[in-house]
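Weekly sync, protein design subgroup
Attendees: M.S., D.O., the rotation student, P.L. (late)

Item 1: inverse folding check
M.S. brought a backbone from last month's batch and wanted to see whether the design step gives back something sensible before we order anything. D.O. pointed out we never logged the input encoding, so this time it goes straight into the notes. Structure tokens as presented (303 positions):
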């Protein structure tokens, strides 16, 4: 919880306040905020009931997620009291925060005790995109060549780097299904290596070392899924059964899903509410998975 103390002085012309005119305001809000509409960022609290909101007209959710090639974006807006506004409010009774900011027509029964709007300030919105394949292996451990660059590690040569590739070895068996057995304590040291060749299954395109690539051991059904091709139920899938070496050549890879997480943070500088002077206000990070959690489809190049 971010706790900030500010001094309110009712005399705008004075640099110091008389003892009787000083009120201590504690802006005790969480480190996260929400968003809705076009575009309002807000945070609320109870006991006492307060809200702090930022209105940025003409700015959409798509705008704040439009990161560049480096997966970052910085947007700035200047507070002008019309299109870009920062408002601090207190309430006599606790409002229904679910529709306090997100309705075109605000509820009629809101009991606003006081409202103060900033007369200046700069709003800086910073967005960072992180992508991952969610295959059970931390991205940092998918730097196979150890050079610190995740983008040049592509074990199966399908054009998708391992940290975004849900099938690192291109055998049409998802990495998450090849028993990587990752733990924080042991890393990938216990990853399954079915044929004992020193290459874990998730990086081995011939898991049983029978000379037939795993992706080509679809002897029952050609559906890009070697897991369900089982000639001998006592052994299991053919791609793990060295006694079965029939080849049915695969013609494509499965499509992959890349999971995206956006971190949206807001910093407000040179804020000046009437009677409240704030140099810098860290508004926090956006907490709304419907906005910050996305995905995209990646089509691997078959080779």
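Designed sequence read out in the meeting:
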């Amino acid at each position: 919880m971010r706790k900030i103390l500010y001094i309110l002085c009712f005399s705008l012309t004075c640099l110091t306040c008389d003892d009787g005119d000083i009120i201590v305001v504690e802006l005790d809000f969480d480190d996260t905020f929400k968003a809705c509409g076009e575009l309002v960022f807000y945070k609320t609290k109870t006991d006492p009931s307060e809200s702090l909101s930022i209105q940025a007209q003409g700015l959409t959710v798509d705008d704040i997620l439009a990161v560049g090639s480096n997966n970052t974006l910085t947007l700035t807006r200047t507070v002008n009291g019309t299109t870009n506004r920062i408002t601090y409010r207190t309430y006599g009774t606790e409002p229904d925060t679910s529709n306090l900011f997100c309705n075109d027509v605000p509820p009629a029964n809101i009991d606003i005790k006081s409202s103060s709007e900033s007369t200046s300030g700069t709003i800086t919105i910073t967005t960072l995109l992180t992508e991952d394949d969610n295959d059970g292996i931390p991205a940092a451990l998918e730097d196979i060549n150890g050079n610190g660059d995740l983008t040049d590690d592509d074990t199966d040569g399908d054009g998708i780097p391992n940290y975004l590739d849900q099938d690192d070895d291109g055998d049409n068996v998802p990495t998450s299904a090849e028993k990587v057995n990752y733990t924080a304590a042991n890393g990938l040291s216990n990853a399954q290596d079915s044929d004992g060749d020193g290459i874990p299954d998730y990086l081995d395109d011939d898991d049983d070392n029978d000379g037939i690539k795993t992706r080509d051991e679809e002897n029952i059904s050609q559906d890009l899924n070697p897991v369900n091709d089982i000639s001998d139920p006592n052994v299991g899938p053919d791609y793990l059964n060295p006694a079965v070496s029939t080849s049915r050549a695969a013609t494509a890879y499965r499509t992959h899903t890349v999971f995206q997480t956006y971190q949206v943070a807001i910093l407000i500088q040179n804020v000046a509410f009437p009677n409240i002077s704030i140099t810098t206000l860290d508004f926090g990070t956006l907490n709304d998975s419907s906005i910050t959690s996305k995905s995209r489809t990646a089509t691997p190049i078959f080779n």
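Discussion: Confidence is low (pLDDT under 50) at residues 1-24. The chain is about 5% helix and 35% strand.
Action: P.L. to compare against the previous round before Friday.
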